[in-house]
Amino acid sequence: MNKTNLPPKRPPYGIIAILLAGAFVSILNSTLLNVALPSMMEDLNVGATTIQWLATGYMLVNGVLIPTTAYLIQKFSVRHLFIAAMLLFTIGTATASIADSFAVLLIGRMVQASGSAVMMPLLMNVLLVSFPIEKRGGAMGILGLVMIFAPAIGPTLSGWIVEHYHWRTLFYMILPFAVIVLLFAFFKLKDTKEKVHLTMDALSLVLSSIGFGSLLYGFSTAGDKGWDSPYVYGTLIIGALALVLFIFRQFKLDEPFLDFRVYKYPMFALSSAISIVLNMAMFSAMILMPIYLQQLRGITPLDSGLLMLPGAIIMGIMSPITGKLFDKYGAKVLSIVGLTITVITTYFFSKLSIDTSYSTLLIMYSVRMFGMSMVMMPVMTNGLNQLPARLNPHGTAMNSTLSQVSGAIGSAILVTVMTSRTKAHAEEIQNSIMSKLTEQPTAEALAEIKNKIMVDSMINGINDSFLVSVFIAALALVLALFIKRVKQNSNEAPIKEQA
């Protein structure tokens, strides 16, 4: 085998460190705003539907641009691509920090998203080409630390800042870190890359943007607007048709925009299926827990974030450890153990009551995160290990895109289940209470009855939604039984680091 096709003996740790810092900042930023949205609504004088576009718009830009990263990674050097992405992210952060209207703030967020969309696929691709297969688990474990820890501490940090400072502080805090990473990248990030003659297929770009963008918008608004809304099913139909046309076109191109031939490799296809299913289940706690804690239990955003912080720390500690275990034992054992823990703890979450103690919730959530820490990166790494080097950019772009789409699908399904089951439980509880009344209740008693119906029905609806996610996680567990360890010689081209 040609030596130039082997990973370098000494991986480019300088490049990886800079990319990790950029990815951490961008991922942390993506979750900071969720807790602050109510404060922004009041300050900017907009409604809930409007302010939600700060999250939806960010997600849509990510979903549209991530599929393009396979082309960008092949076309441009790591240095040029990362500096461009970090510059966009920094400009977006600065714009958002001085925004005096919702429109300017939304523009800032979407410019941020255009930069952050490139970060994770680029970093993942660098790790793949920098380490041999037998050492990739440890490397991807460090990546998992960034992917898991940054978004997990976001709500806690955001809750504390919003309680004590203005929401603009969220951007003021991120901006200097973004500038520092950008400066380090400009002066220290050097890599060599042969000039590649690739042409952008304009039709593929249009079809990809319409397809993934419409699917993400449709699923992300289904929980709020309902599945019978023309905005929902209309965009889903348009997205599905555009995506079918996009896929067919890729098989006809000599240089596909996003190569779906990655699914000819069975372990990559299996890892994608498990990741999609697990992403859907994972969103149950991320969406349902804040509703339960803040709306029903009256727990502050800060305390809600603190409840989830130990789980984030556990995942952060476990991610590098899991990577080393993956290198030694493979993905199958880890994923089966992790998914078994995930299924059991998710089942316990389907038994919530208004009296469930804070400590019980904290322990259950932390154990659930411990289980999930053993699954995501090992399964993803095992699938990517089967791909030849030329398909690495397409594999990483595909994983990142499907993560966005499956998260939106999971959110839509679980919110729909919660909403519909809450309504059904409310009718049942109301009929049960009214049938036992012997006289007309007073206005005060009637208010108490209505409050009890609302609380009990919503808790039952949340429990039903968690129960659905139990079956979703169980499906991932069944799929994990078919994992086989990939044993293949690595043939990645190295990235040359210069002093």
Automatic annotation (TrEMBL):
A Pfam family that the UniProt record links to this protein: MFS_1
Keyword Transmembrane helix: yes
Broad class of the protein's primary localization: membrane
Domain of life: Bacteria
Membrane-spanning ranges: 12-33, 53-73, 80-107, 113-133, 140-161, 167-186, 198-219, 231-248, 268-293, 305-326, 333-350, 362-380, 466-483
PROSITE patterns noted in UniProt: MFS
Membrane topology: Multi-pass membrane protein
Keywords recorded for this protein, A-Z: Cell membrane, Membrane, Transmembrane, Transmembrane helix, Transport
Keyword Lipid metabolism appears in the UniProt entry: no
Subcellular location: Cell membrane
Domain Major facilitator superfamily (MFS) profile: 15-488
NCBIfam families, per database record: efflux_EmrB (TIGR00711)
UniProt record similarity statement: Belongs to the major facilitator superfamily. EmrB family.
Protein name: EmrB/QacA subfamily drug resistance transporter
Originating species: Metabacillus niabensis
